[in-house]
Amino acid sequence: MGEVFGTPSVGRDDKATAVSPVTSDAATLRSIALKAGADDVGFVEIGRPELVGERPHIENAAAWTQTLMSFVVRMNREPIRSPARSVANLEFHHGTDDLNDIARSIVRELEKIGVRALNPAAGFPMEAQKFPDRLWVVSHKEVAVAAGLGQMGIHRNVIHPKFGNFILLGTILLDAKVDEQSAPIDYNPCLECKLCVAACPVGAIGPDGHFNFGSCYTHNYREFMGGFTDWVETVADSKNGQDYRHKVSDGETVSLWQSLSFGANYKAAYCMAVCPAGDDVIGPYLADKG
After folding, report:
1. Which residue has the higher pLDDT, 95 or 227?
2. Over the range 194-223, which residues count as b (16 or more CB within 10 Å of their CB) and which as e?
3. Span between the terminal Cα atoms of the chain, in Å
4. Lowest mean pLDDT: which of 62-66, 131-135, 191-195, 262-266?
């Protein structure tokens, strides 16, 4: 079934005005997303119970939103597994750039078929003027889970049943109903192996599943937002260069310079690196054992 469009209305000047599509074909939309480079796609109607908390934020960004298209893009696994932060961060940065380019391409193709659409950023830049309150336009994780693209692991990353947690998430807001809704998967791909618990350098993930957001945020996002403002205050409070060097090591200063020059770097992600979940990730191992 192709796209079904509303009947054009006639204004007072008797000129026909196009109406947003009433219903769009999920297969067509999925094909557009996959052709643009997405690796999996799902659709969630904005009235779904799973999005109750997100709905005000979504409608603030685009009041006309009727459906959310969630999609995933695979990352290269071995760079994420590298203990060299430069290698892992290149993958994160370039992977996010690719995802945003894919989202932009999807929106362009949707516009061509008459579907109004908007693509919030996959990560940064965000609505920084709202700091320290919520900065992101839409919670990609919540939408992805509702769209059947995975479930949350105990490390608080979405785990795709095939690709594991080596994915990045994107969301497109659509001014259209979609004829086929996605449903959350009925199991959690998380193996509860607790490797992420052992790998976390600051103990943010508890063996009982408890997650200390503050510990993760303070360490992993050291050169983002709060950590950066802390550094600025340290500079401002220092009496001179020697006093500053007593407070901040040369390595930390250069690391901050690198983040300002090339993009803020994540200090961890070891929880992702060790995660064995996902058919593509653990499949070869199981095949050998079989």
Report:
1. 95
2. ebbbebbeeebbeeeeeeeeeebebbbbbb
3. 43
4. 131-135
The CATH class, in words, for 9-178 is alpha beta
The mean per-residue pLDDT over the stretch 194-212 comes to 92
**Mean pLDDT calculated for residue range 91-119:** 95
Beta-ladder partners of 23:
4, 177
Closest CA to 205 of 222, 193, 189: 193
| Residue 19 pLDDT | 46
Q: Which residue has the tokens 């516009």?
A: 111
DSSP-derived letter for residue 287 is H
- pLDDT value of position 183: 95
> Residue 6 above 70 pLDDT?
no
Model pLDDT, residue 18: 46
Q: Collapsing DSSP states into helix, strand and coil, what is residue 146?
A: helix
Long-range pairs of 209-218 with CB within 8 A, sequence gap ≥ 24: 209/154, 211/154, 211/155, 211/156, 216/156, 216/268
Gap between the Cα atoms of 187 and 207, Å rounded? 20
User: Burial of 244 by CB count in 10 Å (0-12 exposed, 13-18 middle, 19+ buried)?
Assistant: middle
Give CATH 3.40.109 domain extents, the chain. Answer: 9-178
Residue 208, both tokens = 């009982």
